[in-house]
Design brief:
The complex is a heterodimer of chains A (about 170) and B (about 500). With about 170 residues, chain A is mainly alpha-helical. Chain A has 2 domains: about 80 residues; about 80 residues. In chain A, helix 2 packs antiparallel against helix 3, helix 4 runs antiparallel to helix 5 and helix 5 runs antiparallel to helix 6. Chain A is flat and about 55 Å long. With about 500 residues, chain B is mainly α. Chain B has one domain. Chain B contains 18 helices and 2 strands. Chain B has a two-stranded antiparallel ribbon with strand order 1-2. In chain B, helix 15 packs across helix 16. The chains are: A mainly alpha (about 170), B mainly alpha (about 500).
Chain lengths: ~170, ~500
């Protein structure tokens, strides 16, 4: 409890534009406004076919509600600041970047290869240096999962370097 | 009598027994592993349930729910880290008691009180779900709209996060449900020209992303965390003296847990905290709480397991999830083509009573597994995250892909994983997103149909007594957390 109070006090001493509550509220509002603008591009139903309200009305109302509530949490946070979050460690960014690698590899090379690469990369970044365990999580386990889905659930994985060899 | 026989049906089906056995075992393992738990586990197993018939699928999910909720206690007692959020209150006394060399006694009490709480709540479920379903026959579109609004406003008072943040998360969930073709006019909304989005965003990519992938990112920030695990010799049945001390607490917490569980969106976490604080309030030795009180363990564990049956009441009777895990179970029902609600009780009693019976058996099974296998389950906590999470990733990706054989679903899952991580980091619970996503279509559909009935006159909602009652309850649900936080602030000042 004392630590939280200390973290909150530390947050209050920062300029408003670098505080988490400002950044988070701003991001939510910007995204909501962008989506709100998008709702004006939705097709309009002619009155004769329209039942109740227009398809854009409900999302519009929701987005306005989100913006109002976000302003409210920001206002409340000015009185009772959020605690300062610890800086994210390197392992987080490596894991996050592995998601990007996964998307790129699964789209360009192979789905199985993407799973395998991510598993080895994440395991290694999280501190696993033993080759056997890296092979276990990166090759043996994905093969088991692959075969399970392929044979028991009858799944066909998207084409790629390795899957093409397997299917041919 | 017929219903009782229907409840016992799982006992006479080798397939259902096998599913129950596997579900309970899997649920226990998930409960023991910090960061997983029945909600994430249920989300992970959802795609696999597509190969099962609807009853087996839901039996699998409910047995994971019951056993997973109990499994969290093992980790809470032995490593002072709740395996599930619902076991957070168990840490307060479970770990100190284990430190005194009485881990076996603490886990014995957790096992007994969890089982009693779980069975008590199944009885509540059997009696109250049909009554609630009967009441739901009186509901028209406006009443369902008001009920869904009540369910959403209850998000304000769930245990995690601030009330307004929970409401924002709930609104975000509803917004996700509007992506795709509008179900009344077939007009595209938020599709941005992506063909795959015209069918909308599926439940499974969002659920797996928000629970499993966001947890993987959270775990990536904790890789240097070291747990001190207390050795467990054997679980001990509580002594006569322990029973004397705790039977009232167990019964009280079972009642509290069942009641809290019935409330839409509330769940085991809130139930266990209230069960624990009530146990302390009624105790003759409140000073022992936090130092290894056996009553504290009983109060928290009976309440969180009692919430499982309670949470199934609104889920099955009204289609409104009673907790995060029942939101996953509700997703399971929907993807298997089962529409919860009063018609389900009339048309498929064998299906429903099969679920009730399965929950009862799951409670007995986890008691047996807990007693004889806690030592083995405790060892599971030793599986390092650097091995476990890459494996979970492989299962999550293949499971999400398997549903529509769409790579876009996998990317949506990863996207929601990142969104979920940042939501949790800044105090937004991810549970309301799922509940909003599930209730989104109901809210919008019933609102628009009600407005057609009322010829666009919004005030007509107030002329319907049941709808009006739900609106008043919604206002109370919104006001309650604000009053509570103001009281707390005054107390702190």
């Amino acid at each position: 409890m004392k630590n939280v109070q200390k973290q909150k006090r530390a947050n209050k001493s920062l300029p408003f534009f670098v505080r988490d509550e400002f950044k988070v509220s701003l991001i939510i509002i910007l995204i909501s406004v962008a989506l709100l603008i998008t709702t004006f591009t939705f097709d309009i139903v002619p009155p004769i076919l329209n039942r109740g309200i227009q398809p854009a009305t409900f999302p519009k109302a929701l987005l306005v509600l989100i913006i109002v509530m976000t302003l409210l949490i920001y206002y409340l946070a000015t009185k009772n600041p959020w605690k300062v979050e610890k800086k994210l460690p390197r392992s987080f960014f490596l894991t996050l970047s592995s998601f990007v690698i996964f998307v790129v590899v699964s789209k360009t090379l192979d789905f199985f290869l993407a799973i395998s690469a991510l598993s080895i990369f994440v395991s290694y970044c999280w501190g696993e240096k033993r080759l056997f365990y890296l092979l276990l999580v990166g090759i043996i386990f994905p093969i088991i999962v692959f075969i399970f889905f392929e044979t028991i659930l009858g799944l066909r994985f998207p084409p790629g370097i390795i899957t093409n060899i397997y299917y041919s | 009598m017929d219903n009782l026989l229907l409840m016992l049906a799982p006992l006479f089906s080798s397939k259902l027994l096998l599913v129950l056995f596997f579900g309970t075992l899997f649920g226990l393992i998930l409960g023991v592993l910090p960061g997983l738990g029945p909600t994430t586990g249920g989300a992970l197993i959802l795609p696999f349930t597509m190969t099962l018939d609807p009853l087996s699928a839901i039996v699998l999910l409910t047995s994971i729910y019951c056993a997973g909720t109990y499994g969290g206690a093992i980790t809470a007692v032995l490593i002072n880290t709740p395996g599930t959020p619902a076991a957070a209150a168990t840490c307060l006394d479970g770990y100190p008691l284990a430190q005194k060399g009485e881990a076996g006694r603490a886990l014995g009490m957790a096992t007994v009180s969890s089982t009693v709480g779980g069975i008590f709540s199944v009885v509540i479920l059997v009696f109250f779900a049909p009554i609630l379903a009967q009441l739901a026959y009186e509901f028209g579109q406006p009443e369902y709209f008001a009920l869904a609004i009540f369910g959403l406003t209850m998000l304000a008072s769930i245990g995690e996060g601030s009330p307004i943040k929970n409401l924002i998360a709930g609104a975000f969930g509803i917004l996700i449900s509007t992506v795709g073709k509008d179900f009344m006019t077939s007009i595209d909304r938020f599709t941005f020209g992506v063909n795959e989005l015209t069918e909308g965003i599926g439940f499974i990519p969002v659920v797996v992303g928000l629970f499993a992938m966001s947890e993987m990112l959270t775990q990536s920030t904790l890789i240097n965390q070291i747990f001190n695990r207390i050795a467990l010799k054997a679980i001990k049945l509580p002594s006569k003296d322990d029973y004397k001390k705790t039977w009232k607490t167990i019964l009280r917490s079972s009642g509290i847990g069942s009641f809290i569980g019935v409330l839409p969106a509330e769940g085991g976490t809130v139930a266990s905290l209230i069960g624990y604080s009530e146990a302390k309030r009624f105790s003759k030795n409140p000073e022992e709480f936090g130092k290894g009180s056996i009553e504290g363990i009983a109060g928290a564990e009976a309440a969180n397991n009692a919430a499982t049956g309670g949470a199934m009441v609104p889920t099955l009777a009204l289609g409104i999830p009673g907790s995060a895990t029942t939101a996953v179970i509700l997703t399971g029902l929907i993807i298997h083509g089962v529409r919860p609600g009063p018609d389900l009780f009339r048309e498929q009693p064998d299906f429903l009573y099969g679920i009730f019976g399965a929950m009862l058996i799951a409670n007995i099974l986890f008691f047996i597994f807990g007693f004889f296998g806690a030592k083995i389950f405790a060892r599971i906590t030793l599986v390092p995250n650097k091995i476990l999470w890459p494996m979970i990733f492989a299962v999550s990706v293949c499971g999400t892909y398997s549903l529509n054989q769409s790579i876009i679903d996998v990317w949506i899952m990863l996207f929601f994983g990142v969104v979920g991580f940042f939501m949790r980091r800044y105090g937004f619970s991810v549970v309301p997103v799922i509940i909003g996503l599930i209730l989104g279509e109901l809210v919008e559909g019933t609102l628009r149909q009600s407005l057609v009935i009322f010829d666009g006159n919004w005030l007509m909602f107030l002329t319907r007594p049941i709808a009006l009652t739900f609106f008043i309850l919604s206002l109370i649900a919104l006001a309650f957390p604000l009053i509570r936080s103001r009281k707390l602030r005054k107390k702190n000042d």
